[in-house]
Amino acid sequence: MQFSARDEKEVALCVKELNSPCFHPSMVCLWVTDSFERKDTERDLLAKLLVHLVKSHDGILSQAQLIQGFESVLSTLEDAVNDAPKAPEFLGRLFAKGIIESVFSLNEIERLLRDGGEEPGSLLETGLAADVLGSTLEVIKFEKGDAILRDICVGSNLQLETFRPPNPTTSIKLERFI
């Protein structure tokens, strides 16, 4: 990444000084896509940074801009897994952090995954949506426990079975929660 995500205030100031809100979704997409090639520490810092930018009092990054950035990431995920096979897992971790920090809901992630891909719905067909969702649920369970995960899932009325890919290959991560 071209910045130090360790200094959230510095990054926030730089983003604010750019004064280009229409670029924010692209910035999110670039950062997230770049994080697929980074270490866990850097991805965790990025997750914290994104939460900070959305929750900052200055409203530097809106929830809508963050979601648009993730839509762009998901539109290229099928290609990204060729270079970064763990991209679905990494993306799931980012989504989990956003859900845990109340930056967005599981319902919003469900919509992103259903509609995402090179073609709308293609992430469901390839099983990548199941992998991302499974990873998201796994991280929430690990960090917050079964009870919180259950509350989040019940509150979203999520039907996990609908994320099963149509072909015989199944997502091992998602199957643990079905």
TrEMBL record:
One of its GO terms (molecular function) is mRNA binding. Residues 1-114 form the MI domain. GO terms for biological process: regulation of translation. SUPFAM superfamilies: ARM repeat. GO terms for cellular component: eukaryotic translation initiation factor 4F complex. Keywords: Initiation factor, Protein biosynthesis, Translation regulation. InterPro entries: ARM-type_fold (IPR016024), Initiation_fac_eIF4g_MI (IPR003891). Gene3D superfamilies: 1.25.40.180. SMART domains: MA3 (SM00544). Pfam families: MA3. Belongs to the eukaryotic initiation factor 4G family. This is MI domain-containing protein. It comes from Arachis hypogaea (Peanut).
